[in-house]
């Protein structure tokens, strides 16, 4: 039971450490193993933190790219709306100028303003 736990959790790093001890043959191998394991843990924490930072950075980069796409889409829509408004304004102005050109120069008369007898009616 204990051997399974050791193999599962520290087997790989301990075998690497013992291989290094056999290769280097330090004066105090137990202290060397302790320092090596301490540095191994510190390096593993660093790698884990770096991995989390990389993941966070990638997430932020993806979010930034998505936001840039949204901004580009909004700018495109705003440009389309401004073109539509400009066309509508141009059509309105052209209609206004054609209305101004087609109206007669004579003043409009309302029913109450018309003369009671017309010259053609007197001849009959």
TrEMBL record:
Coiled-coil annotated spans: none
Domain of life: Eukaryota
A cellular-component GO term for this protein: Set1C/COMPASS complex
Biased composition regions of type Basic and acidic residues, renumbered to the chain: 80-99
Name of the protein: DPY30 domain-containing protein 2
Family statement drawn from the similarity comment of this UniProt entry: Belongs to the dpy-30 family.
Chain intervals for the UniProt region annotation (Disordered): 69-124
Organism from which the protein derives: Patella caerulea (Rayed Mediterranean limpet)
Family matches, as Pfam families: Dpy-30
């Amino acid at each position: 039971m204990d051997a399974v736990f050791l193999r599962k959790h520290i087997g790989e790093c301990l075998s690497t450490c013992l291989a290094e001890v056999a290769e280097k043959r330090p004066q105090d191998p137990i202290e060397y193993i302790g320092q090596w394991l301490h540095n191994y843990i510190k390096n593993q924490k660093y790698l884990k933190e770096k991995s989390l930072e990389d993941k966070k950075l990638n997430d932020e980069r993806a979010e930034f790219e998505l936001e840039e796409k949204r901004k580009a889409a909004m700018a495109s829509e705003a440009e389309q709306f401004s073109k539509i408004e400009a066309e509508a304004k141009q059509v309105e102005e052209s209609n206004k100028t054609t209305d101004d050109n087609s109206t007669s120069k004579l003043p409009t008369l309302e029913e109450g303003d018309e003369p009671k007898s017309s010259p053609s009616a007197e001849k009959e």
